[in-house]
Amino acid sequence: MGVWSDFKRFVRIKRAGVLLLTLFCYGIGTGILAPMNSIYLSESIGLSKGQVVSVFAISLILNMIATMTVGMISDRLRSKRKLAISAALLCILGLIFYMRAESYTSALFGMCLAVAPSGLIMGQLFAMSRNHFMQLAPDIVEMAQIWLRASLSVGFFAGLLIGANLYLLATFQGVLWGNMAGYALLVVLLLGYKEYSSAIAEGSNGGSAPNSEPFSLIMLIALFMIACADAIRGLYLPLVVKDLFGKAELMSYIWSIQAVFELLFMTIAGYWAAKYGSKRIILIGSAAALITYTVYASSASLIVFFLVQPVYSFFVSILYGVAMGYVQRMFAGRSGFGSSLYVFISLAASLAGYMFPLLIAGYDPRIFIIPLSLTAASMIIMLIVLSRDRKLASSSMHISS
Known about the structure:
By secondary structure, the protein is mainly α. The protein has helices at residues 2-12, 16-33, 37-44, 49-74, 81-98, 104-115, 118-136, 141-191, 198-201, 217-245, 250-256, 258-276, 278-298, 302-307, 309-329, 335-355, 369-400. The protein is built from 17 helices and no strands.
């Protein structure tokens, strides 16, 4: 009943529906292209494995630079909305060049222009939404963020299905036009949205961010490692699936299964994190990822690939929902920087994740031994941190008694 009443209150908040729709549409736009991107570079343009990785790596480096540069100054600016709109327009321009690419150089230029501003978009959207709910409903701000992230995920998986069908109907060109339409719709929605600035959101009505977290570099490293593992899956699973089963569109259908579970799992994980602590829930989610990577590395059955997706969606729900809020709360009062730092960690993890599998020839399922190892190491780090936290709590109780 508490969940339902919180959700009803959430959807009735002024302009919450606009934010939900904005993130849903942004998710559709990115989801249309995501599973096809590496295949497009490989098949349509004819790039080698090393060239595909270098295109992703260079564009990611530029994305990281743009995301953190803007993140460090965005809290001093009154309008994050204008930043997001400008970035979306640059992405559209980049896609125009990208869909006309015929060589490595032209593909690299188009990809860099289309991708470099995208991390800025996500970081500023979540900074805007945090300011919005800090002003209007500070007691449910964490769950509001999670529901907005769930909306983005559901949109992403809807985009996967749309992208698979666009690929069948209009080849890769249709997929790229669909991706461009997603950015265009994002611009239209943002033009009609009135934001709350961070100065207003942190004023007398909003107060300070609740349940702030102490800064923990070692936990940021652990999050980086599990995000790196997820990035390896994101780039290489479509290629492994195509290599094993011969159909590029299968990956869109495999990923789309997660949409059925995403909203439920993010909601459950959000309330569990509030009750038991974010670090414990992130650890549990990592165990689900460990199971999934083991299956990917050892199974060549398409049915098993489908069946394990709900298990992985539980992990993704925690990584993209609970972990994002955890990082944001480390920087209470600096919503732009906190959101940008989370996106930066994800991008840096993607960059590292793209490099590791170059050690394995082809697109062999053994690639997933690497994310399995990274996740296991991250879980060990989190267990050490939780053990230290328990000892500190026990010592404090002993001193106070």
